[in-house]
Design brief:
- With about 450 residues, the chain is α+β, with helices and mostly antiparallel strands.
- The chain has helices at about 1-10, 25-30, 35-50, 60-70, 85-95, 120-125, 145-155, 210-225, 240-250, 295-305, 370-375, 395, 410-415, 420-430, 435-440; strands spanning about 20, 80, 95-100, 100-105, 110-115, 130-135, 140, 160-165, 175-180, 180-185, 190-195, 195-200, 230-235, 255-265, 270-275, 285-290, 310-315, 320-330, 335-345, 360.
- Strands 1, 2, 14, 15, 18 and 19 form a six-stranded mixed beta sheet that branches. Strands 4, 5, 6, 7, 8 and 9 form a six-stranded antiparallel beta sheet that branches. A six-stranded mixed beta sheet has the order 11-12-13-16-17-20, sandwiched between helices.
- A hairpin with a 2-residue loop joins strand 4 (about 100-105) and strand 5 (about 110-115).
- Helix 8 (about 210-225) runs parallel beside helix 9 (about 240-250) and helix 9 runs parallel beside helix 10.
- It is globular, with a radius of gyration of 23 Å.
Length: about 450
């Protein structure tokens, strides 16, 4: 069981930066004696429920409820994981499955889309990050469990399912008819556009750092000396494995700190540094981020920004700057606990505030942009999120102010053949900007 469990524990880093610690059974014996009465109170309530509740209650249900209740008093990224949770996360980071390719979470009883996987049925069918799925095949799913919703969305390739979605900014619900297909994990994709290499990373699953290096090598081989620059697209990337965020950053850095983490216990402090060997050899670089870029994505963007290696473009990122430690609890369960905060090379914490782009570029090709921006969802909107005392509320709202430079309508852009304005703007910037001028922009 040890090797499969280790693999599953590694997989639980999705949307997090996770370390693994052994179970400290001696810790139970070291509990302060003053907590004894509190445990006695918990045991008394347990006994009263078992003896007096109107229907028989399963012991496992009560214990899980007690555990979930304790964790609910902490930050939103601490949770209890059972074998089923491990399996779901494993398929998201290592395997394949029949489904829609949607990364979802539970938000106050509602199933919310974190991001659709690029090229998946959900993505091609029109599902967007921030959508709330209210019905599956006409059946209300609000108030149910996330596992139940995920099970319904998965199924045999070729089978159809109808989703009813509430989209912030729209007055009426939207209906989507999608066909499930085999979802193969493909976190890294690349293309060449106007002599600019574009590498899109949708999640930080296993071997992403190596895959990005391979993608750039393929771009260089195809474009040769005509390559004007590279765009690293991290929009809608909810995060993943810390080691892969470090590996990807190291792909484009020759030296210096990538990220550091600091916890309550000094033994949790750690610094990750770059090694010699920038695969792009200093080629001008832009990193695209948005409000869906979280955790590991912010580690990469912060490292390349602080080390003056890349220009960050797009919109302010999600703002998840905490590290979760995975503590195994026997053979088939674990505790995912927030134990540290991470910091960019210059010492900035991205918690709440996120990464501010060097050049703020809204996605004006999105017809729902204005209304969606008013209801944008970030770490600072989560209940019980960790506070970054350095940040001020006004700083967190400044990206909602309209930029007078970007006035074209989605219809005008569509007529010009532009369906992704942020990527278009990044490619055009690299195409017309010398390396020296790009470095000057980064220093502003």
């Amino acid at each position: 069981m040890a090797r499969p469990l280790a693999s599953l524990l590694r997989a639980t880093a999705l949307v997090s930066a996770v370390a693994v610690l052994p179970l400290a059974t001696a810790g139970l014996a070291a509990v302060d004696a003053r907590t004894g009465p509190q445990f006695a109170k918990l045991a008394l309530i347990y006994e009263k429920i078992k003896a007096n509740y109107v229907e028989p209650v399963n012991d496992d249900t009560l214990m899980k409820g007690a555990i979930d209740g304790m964790l609910a008093t902490l930050d939103p990224h601490s949770s209890y994981l059972e074998a089923r949770d491990f399996e779901n996360l494993r398929t998201q980071t290592e395997g394949s499955y029949g489904g829609l390719g949607l990364s979802v979470t539970l938000d106050d009883g509602a199933v919310k889309v974190i991001a659709p996987m690029k090229g998946s049925p959900g993505d091609l069918g029109g599902i967007k990050a921030g959508d709330y799925i209210t019905h599956l095949d006409g059946k209300l799913i609000y108030g149910g469990s996330l596992d139940e919703a995920v099970d319904q969305m998965r199924g045999a390739p070729g089978t159809a399912i109808k989703l009813t979605v509430y989209r912030p900014g729209r007055d009426e619900p939207l209906d989507f008819s999608l066909t499930r297909r085999v979802i193969e994990l493909k976190p890294v994709e690349w293309k060449i556009k106007d002599n600019v290499g574009v590498i899109s990373v949708s999640s930080f699953s296993m071997n992403v750092g190596a895959q990005v290096a391979q993608a750039f090598a393929a771009i260089r081989a195809q474009a040769g000396n005509r390559l004007a620059g590279v765009v690293l697209d991290l929009r809608g990337n909810p995060g993943g494995l810390l080691e892969e965020a470090v590996s990807l950053s190291d792909d484009f850095l020759d030296k210096g700190t990538i990220v550091s983490q600091r916890g309550r216990d000094p033994q949790d402090n750690e610094i990750y540094s770059a090694h010699m060997g920038d695969v792009a050899r200093g080629l001008p670089m832009i990193v695209l981020i948005d409000e869906g870029s979280a955790s590991a994505s912010e580690i990469v963007a912060g490292a390349l920004q602080d080390q003056h290696r890349a220009l960050i473009m797009g919109q302010r990122s999600f703002g998840k700057g905490s590290v979760q430690t995975l503590i195994p609890l026997g053979k088939d369960a674990a505790l995912k606990l927030t134990t540290a905060r991470y910091f960019t090379p210059s010492g900035r914490s991205v918690q709440e505030g996120g990464i501010d782009p060097d050049i703020a570029v809204p996605q004006i090709s999105d017809p729902d942009l204005r209304k969606r921006a008013l209801r944008s969802y970030r770490e600072s909107d989560l209940r019980r999120h960790l506070i970054n005392e350095i940040k001020q509320d006004k700083d967190l709202e400044k990206d909602k102010i309209d930029d007078p430079r970007f006035k074209m309508t989605p219809e005008e852009l569509k007529a010009k053949g532009i369906d992704d304005f942020q990527l278009y703007y990044a490619v055009q910037t690299l195409g017309r900007t010398s390396p020296g001028a790009l470095a000057a922009l980064r220093k502003r």
